[in-house]
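Hey,

Quick one before I head out. I ran the complex with nicotinamide-adenine-dinucleotide overnight. Inputs first:
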Amino acid sequence: MALLADRESRLLIDGKLVTGSAGTFPTINPATEEVLGVAADADATDMGRAIEAARRAFDDTDWSTNTELRVRCIRQLRDALREHAEELREITIAEVGAPRMLTSGAQLEGPIDDLSFCADTAENYEWKTDLGHATPQGIPTRRTLAREAVGVVGAITPWNFPHQINLAKVGPALAAGNTLVLKPAPDTPWCAAAVGQIIAEHTDFPPGVINIVTSNDHAVGALLSKDARVDMVSFTGSTATGRAVMADAAATIKKVFLELGGKSAFLVLDDADLAGACSMSAFTASMHAGQGCAITTRLVVPRARYDEAVAAAAATMASIKPGDPNDNTTVCGPVISERQRDRIQGYLDLAVEEGGTFACGGGRPADRDRGFFIEPTVIAGLDNSARVAREEIFGPVLTVIAHDGDDDAVRIANDSPYGLSGTVFSGDDERAARVADRLRVGTVNVNGGVWYAADAPFGGYKQSGIGREMGLAGFEEYTEIKVIATLAN
Ligand code: NAD
């Protein structure tokens, strides 16, 4: 693959790397504001060709039934990505602004490794299960339950963890026998295009099975939700866009899979190590400049110790300086774009209007005049009804809220339109587990446990989404169920 400076970025359509019909668009380094280079800009015609290629590969080849071929191609992709991990790492740091330290985990190497789970699942999966004999309406019948691929999947993804989110759709969708068109976010086209190049040059995926279409125009991606030739749309992004995807998909009743926003709560019970828990909460909210859908951005603490909790969180956040993502010690890099930085700044202004105060941070760091940086910020003095406690800010911003005991803490955590994730800290594991059981969210961290793993389903309740990504549940999202009833003699 080319060095960063010489990168060319093309679309992958029907097995070939091709230029975009709308020309190119720039991709920008959020840490420096420099233009890194250009990406291929697809138009509606390119998207139509990609959908057609995926349709043909599904309908006219044995891809969906040839499990051996699929497993081999996915393992080949995993190995090829591993071989090119260093180039992918440089692209990811430069284009996403992702701290280098995160690329050994969820930003890059983790999701590459997770492809093993997809291949293994397909290899060992019981595609047909015997439902046994029965005599419905008096007729002796042998029943078989079959799982099959859904068909053509349109995958639309955001910029914050591009490899994790792209591969968490590509891996299970292809392993289950679907064909796919991936439309990545316009902010991170190179991350996806580099994977497209690796697929074209180093794997045996048949033409059309996977297509990668970068575009600067959201409307080009929206065609995936609208086109009748697409059987399922798998979307990760904001709840507002998820709503639009669902509405567009309604016309053709396609299967809709949504991973959306969050405003997750970190509950500190009154018997917990308060300083330790608040410090961990502040650290988590600063990682990757807070650009993670499942990050806990509401710190909910005992009212009697509110000031102490604010001080502990602020001490940690004040020690985390937004920095160069290339530096091995950086935890908090830039946010992705000027638009996102201004949006976050708008929320910080709103916090003041709502009567909140900053225990640390509150704006752009004084020592960084280039790059889209925001100081890790602790907002104090507001309750859960404030807009900054209810809306997703998607920056390194933590709002500290007081609770009056376990029931109140649970009430506050669940008083949200979202239901993605949560954390509970207590000196008593059983008490923490009882609280965890009452949270209306898809994943819970209890006293520091980690839920992120290839075999653990991830997703949201309420307006955080529909369906689960990863794990067996994530694989089965990309399948249809068929019951075959045979007359038994
Ligand atoms: P976004 O919703 O603005 O964009 C996501 C993708 O949708 C992009 O590829 C964009 O081009 C595309 N898009 C925009 N309008 C569209 C339309 N009308 N039809 C089809 N596609 C359209 O989100 P973003 O700003 O890129 O990412 C941040 C959001 O993603 C946050 O809300 C975050 O919580 C969410 N997110 C959720 C998860 C999760 O798993 N729950 C993971 C990561 C990010």
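Residues 156-160, 165, 183, 185-186, 218, 221-222, 225, 236-238, 241, 244-245, 259-262, 293, 392, 394, 420, 460, 464-465 surround nicotinamide-adenine-dinucleotide (CB under 6 Å).

Talk tomorrow,
K.
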